[in-house]
Amino acid sequence: MTVAPSIDKSALLAQLGPGVEASYPLARLTSFKVGGPADFFATVRTEDALAGLVRKAWALDLPLFVMGNGSNILLADRGIRGLVIHNLCAEVTYEESALNQDEGVPALLIAAQAGAMLPRVGREAIKRGYYDLVYATGIPGTVGGAVMSNAGAYGWCMADSLSWIRYLARDGEVRTIASGAAELRYRHSRFKDSGEIVLAAGFHLNQRREEARASELNRRRRETQPLTLPNAGSMFKNPPGTAAGALIEQAGLKGRRIGDAQISEKHANFIVNLGRATARDVKALIDLAQSSVKEPLELEVQLVGDWSE
Ligand SMILES: Cc1cc2nc3c(=O)[nH]c(=O)nc-3n(C[C@H](O)[C@H](O)[C@H](O)COP(=O)(O)OP(=O)(O)OC[C@H]3O[C@@H](n4cnc5c(N)ncnc54)[C@H](O)[C@@H]3O)c2cc1C
């Protein structure tokens, strides 16, 4: 359902309740810094508030988008219809467990609400001597967003250390599943298509050996990725056996600019916003890359909102 102009927005606003705003500018909440407003917008800080508002949107048949840190989306210039919920539920608990004592391996059990920032969780685990999430300290998203896409880097991904996921099911019930039931694979989980909302996730960490230092991996990122300009990370998934960035570079597109959007001169699988890029500029570069490279390039970044002409 789209919110047609004939529908009384103020009536909907009243039904959604206090704390919900209309026509809310969203660009600044995304890492790309582009895109238009949300019809309705709310920030939530507790799981109950999040679940309550989601249930309300479902009951009203209102389009719904739950946003984490906005670091994996390209939001349309026309904005997004329906309700956007910005998830700031960010409680995290860390508990050292003797669960694996048989093997003499201690473990760190983490329970993180979906709005917790992944780099923070990774850094806190490192402070406690656990290195499983070192790779994640450079992924600027929330736990919920990372579970959604099974985020990963340098050969590791969420699936390696997730143990359980609590989520709001489409029937409005809160359920918990083992991570094995979440269909986690390369940049995919069941939550991508199901419409279910991730509320929290549990991690089971047991890597006491520092195989890679966060500082080294993040230095590598700074050297190879355009981190000083707004972007949304890798635009395309890597096709099997090859790197999307290499294919785009081979097609001669590194540095190509449309409006204020540019295929990064530093890393061709990144598109950067040079200042006043529009979502349309970015989309034109996406189309150009997809039509110039022979192998099919599947988007890793999610196109969100109203892309109608
Ligand atoms: C500089 C940079 C580097 C990056 N490097 C990496 C990398 O190395 N590896 C990698 O995998 N990604 C990388 N990313 C992409 C991005 O940070 C990750 O995909 C991250 O996990 C997205 O989390 P988010 O909270 O920002 O999600 P958002 O962008 O807010 O949302 C992305 C999707 O997740 C959904 N979502 C968010 N929260 C929930 C929830 N609670 N329940 C259900 N769905 C939810 C949204 O609805 C949306 O569909 C990078 C991005 C940037 C800008």
Overview of this structure, please?
The protein is of the alpha+beta class. It has three domains: 9-87, Uridine Diphospho-n-acetylenolpyruvylglucosamine Reductase, domain 2, CATH 3.30.43; 92-205, Uridine Diphospho-n-acetylenolpyruvylglucosamine Reductase, domain 3 (2-Layer Sandwich); 226-304, UDP-N-acetylenolpyruvoylglucosamine reductase, C-terminal domain (Uridine Diphospho-n-acetylenolpyruvylglucosamine Reductase, domain 1, Alpha-Beta Complex), CATH 3.90.78.10. Helix content is 24%, strand content 25%. The strands form five sheets. It has a five-stranded antiparallel β-sheet with strand order 6-7-12-10-11. Strands 1-2-5-3 form a four-stranded mixed β-sheet. A hairpin with a 2-residue loop joins strand 8 (152-153) and strand 9 (156-157). The longest helix has 14 residues, at 47-60. The model has no long low-confidence stretch (mean pLDDT 95). Bound molecules: flavin-adenine dinucleotide. Flavin-adenine dinucleotide binds at residues 31, 65-73, 87, 114, 139-142, 144-146, 148-149, 151-153, 191, 197-198, 227, 231-233, 302.
Total count of strands: 16
Distance between the termini: 18 Å
As residue ranges, the low-confidence spans are none
Rg (CA only):
20 Å
Spell the H/E element sequence.
HEEHEEEEEHHEEEEHEHHEEEHE
Indicate the percent of residues in helices.
10-25%
Helix-strand blueprint:
Elements (H helix, E strand, L loop, with lengths): L8 H8 L4 E5 L11 E8 L2 H14 L3 E4 L5 E3 L4 E8 L4 E6 L9 E7 L4 H10 L15 H7 L2 E2 L2 E2 L4 E7 L5 E5 L12 H4 L2 E9 L8 H11 L19 H7 L6 E2 L2 E3 L7 E3 L5 H14 L9 E3 L5
Parallel strand pairs: 2-5, 3-5, 4-16
Antiparallel strand pairs: 1-2, 6-7, 7-12, 8-9, 10-11, 10-12, 13-14, 14-15
The protein binds flavin-adenine dinucleotide (FAD).
